[in-house]
Amino acid sequence: MSASTEKSHPSVNPPTAAERRLQKRLQTEADPRWQQVMSRDKAADGQFYYSVATTGVYCRPSCAARTARAENVDFFLTAHQAEQAGFRPCKRCKPDQPSLDMQQMEKVAQACRLIKEAEQEPSLDTLAATVGLSVFYLHRLFKRLTGLTPREFAAGVRAERMRTALQDEARVTDAIYQAGYQSSSRFYERADQLLGMTPSRYRAGGKDTLIRFALAQCSLGALLVAGSDKGLCAIWLGDDAERLLLQLQEAFPAAELIGADAEFEQWVAQVVGMVEQPAVGISLPLDIRGTAFQQRVWQALLQIPVGQTLSYSEVAQRIGSPKAVRAVASACAANMLAVAIPCHRVVRNDGSLSGYRWGLERKARLLQQEQQGNDVP
């Protein structure tokens, strides 16, 4: 018999139950999803589910039940997978049903549809009764998720109907009532803010409206600056100056566009200076046109210091509407006054760049210029 066959091999003992529990605990704790379970992260709801071996149930990450021991936890991508593995839904967080956030969003979406489809603005009592919530709760929930009260949302719907009716060449009086305004006086009180001009002028494409403009070049490319009798109404950036002018003509097809005079040239010089040296700022009047929510967002942007940034969610929190992140992004995209209203200072939660009307490259260069300016002693 050979020497090799005579040698005895040491036996490999299987891991003990305690060792298996330790290994499972370490494996679970190394999974990033475990931290989301530990913190009851609502943002993770719907992304995965976790089961607890000792209770036989599966839960959402945000479940308020007592946190399970890590060695008893397994993760699943869907509720169906957890049930296929033999687990039943938790009676506390009800993971087999839409999440509370989803239910709330559906209630608000239903209220929005009711407002949009109604010929006359429905009362808050009617909305609350239809969606099955109390008046107080619906009002608070609506504002938290949309950034607007139901009345402000209805005002925006009426304003959009008004713009559409005027563009369809309806008579101004007819358009006012088609849009859902109870009286012409209520509309005229806010017409200038919503349209930037009288309804008759808006209907005529800006006829008899005087808009001064000038084209210039800056480090970011072509620059168009336009102003009404109230102040600057457009600061646009692009690669082609002629294209910018064409866009201005399309926006006000019947307005009287005139080249800059000496006074307006000084305004343009200030705008160029603001682009090149953001810390200098701008002291010119601005003709800011937008909905109540958009103006709240733009006012918040004006408070962001040069060289600093905020995330879309942080802006939403500052205006008192933490759930209205998408609406904040839409308001930034609707900004007509580049740099003057610094929507370029709004970034994603991780600091990366997204969503700039005049191109991400320009957004990056603006932020870089502002940061370099702050670094100068």
Polypeptide structure, described:
The chain is an alpha/beta fold and 377 residues long. The protein folds into four domains: 24-89, DNA Methylphosphotriester Repair Domain; 100-161, Homeodomain-like (Arc Repressor Mutant, subunit A); 210-276, Methylated DNA-protein cysteine methyltransferase domain (Double Stranded RNA Binding Domain, 2-Layer Sandwich); 292-373, Arc Repressor Mutant, subunit A, CATH 1.10.10.10. The chain contains 17 helices and ten strands. Strands 3-1-2-4 form a four-stranded mixed β-sheet. A four-stranded mixed β-sheet has the order 7-6-5-8, sandwiched between helices. Strands 9-10 form a two-stranded parallel ribbon. Helix 5 (100-117) crosses helix 6 (124-131) and helix 15 packs across helix 16. 30% of the residues are buried. The model is unreliable at 1-6, 168-189, 191-200 and 203-207 (pLDDT under 50).
Main sheet overview:
4 strands, mixed
Shape: elongated
Distance between the termini: 86 Å
CATH architecture of the largest domain: Orthogonal Bundle
User: For the record, what CATH class of the largest domain applies?
Assistant: Mainly Alpha
Number of beta strands: 10
Report strand order across the widest sheet: 3-1-2-4
Mean pLDDT: 81
CATH-assigned homologous superfamily of the largest domain: Winged helix-like DNA-binding domain superfamily/Winged helix DNA-binding domain
CATH topology of the largest domain: Arc Repressor Mutant, subunit A
Uncertain runs are: 1-6, 168-189, 191-200, 203-207
Percent range of helical residues:
40-55%
Q: Which structural category fits the helices and strands?
A: alpha/beta
User: How do the helices and strands follow one another from N- to C-terminus?
Assistant: HHHEEEHEHHHHHHHEEEHEHHEHHEH
List the domain count as a whole number.
Answer: 4
Helix count, DSSP H or I runs of 4 or more residues: 17
Report the radius of gyration as a whole number of Å.
29 Å
What share of the residues does DSSP label as strand, in percent? 5-15%
